[in-house]
Amino acid sequence: MREYLLTLCVTVAVTYLLTGPVRKFAIAAGAMPEIRARDVHREPTPRLGGIAMFGGLCAGLLVADHLKNLNGVFELSNEPRALLSGAALIWLIGVLDDKFELDALIKLGAQMISAGVMVMQGLTILWIPVPGIGTVPLTQWQGNLLTVALVVITINAVNFVDGLDGLAAGMVCIAAAALFLYAYRIWFGYGIESAAPATLFAAILMGMCLGFLPHNMHPARIFMGDSGSMLIGLVLAASAISLTGQVDPDALALFAGGERNATHAMLPAYIPLILPLTVIAIPMADLVLAIVRRTWKGQSPFAADRGHLHHRLLELGHSHSRAVLIMYFWSGLIAFGTVAYSVHSATMWIVLAIAVLSAVGLILLLLPRFTPRTPRWAEGLVPPRYRHAARAAEAAAEAAARDTSGTEPEPARPIAAGVSGANGATAVGPRSRFPDRRKAESTR
Question: What global pTM score does this model have?
């Protein structure tokens, strides 16, 4: 675990330190597109953040190659080289797209070629464990086609969800953390060496996202662009493919007395293996809804719009930061809930906890529908937007007076000296309607 933590920290540091110079390079190179109709930011922001993330990927793989326990991943498997080859190709296409806005079909072809490069070097799905049947081996063509499809779908799912500051990087980081926990358990808990590459890929992916997030949180100083979103989507897909198609179920059968019985006994543990896309269920749902929505309107599935899930959260009344946190919440609930159920499926506490957290998530989704009313005695303890409606009406009246007269209204004066609110501040009310009385009081 210490070597994984070291690899993670190096990846975080390299990505974080490279992002600042990359931002200056993006500004100098003119990789700052104009504001589009579907964008939520209000001023041009540089892209090309994927350059720093690719640097973090290379640094993480380089450090892992020189560590004693992780060096075996590179000696016994060709998957790290396959990942680096596919990642370099998709990253290069993303950099060109961030600068020159490539056609969607060109990017789709590049995604398929990148997946094919990884398949040619051995990173492919070899078999699928099916409940009730056991291990179903795949032919070469079946495994290759399934691998390419999974890579392309995952890349576009991550690309589609990249619409708010810090959203894509945070959600992929959550998915990578869930994959890391499960892969680490398979490797060290059951002693299955074939799970080592997936564990390493997930750790490096977490470092890439964590190092980039401080620069990308709202308000973002730089965007990852397609060079970053397609890159982390490919790394996430590679981790899932390595964990799904390379782990031999026969090794697990040793603990259950037969392959078919092992499949039944280990069914909860197979959930992240059979359905690796559960860790990115929210981006995948957004992708499916976008394709259906655009096709129903007679548009291309690649046509951009403002109908994504994060756009709908903003339309409901959520702030930018709250919408991102809500998406984080649901991604974490689905990903970690699946992993927790695979570990302790015999207890009902996990199911009850997931149900309770789902109810909390629904309340958070509907939060803008409620108009909280704070008692007058507690107004000083809450932000101004939650205070009594009279304050809002007074502010609206002052704004209307300012607009009609063109001058700034006089500030409100205290109603009575010594009257304080709950936080010790003096109470403030409207000006007196009797100027003569105020003048007389001031001469006393």
Answer: 0.74
d(CA 170, CA 209): 7
Give the span between the Cα atoms of 121 and 391, in whole angstroms. Answer: 66
Query: Look-up: residue for tokens 């597109």?
Result: 33
Could you tell me the end-to-end alpha-carbon distance of the chain, in angstroms, rounded to an integer?
A: 77
The rounded distance, in Å, linking the Cα atoms of 38 and 48 is 19
The identity of residue 431, as a single letter, is R
Question: Is residue 54 a contact partner of residue 211, using CB atoms and an 8 Å limit?
Answer: no
CA gyration radius, the chain: 27
Contact between 420 and 427 under an 8 Å Cβ cutoff? The reply is yes
Task: Output the DSSP codes for 72-128.
Answer: HHHHH-SHHHHHHHHHHHHHHHHHHHHHH---HHHHHHHHHHHHHHHHHTT-S--EE
Alpha-helix runs per DSSP H in 185-248: 190, 196-216, 225-245
Tens digit of each residue's pLDDT (9 = 90 or more) over 260-293: 455 445 554 455 455 456 656 776 777 777 778 7
CA 188, CA 1: separation in Å to the nearest integer? 10
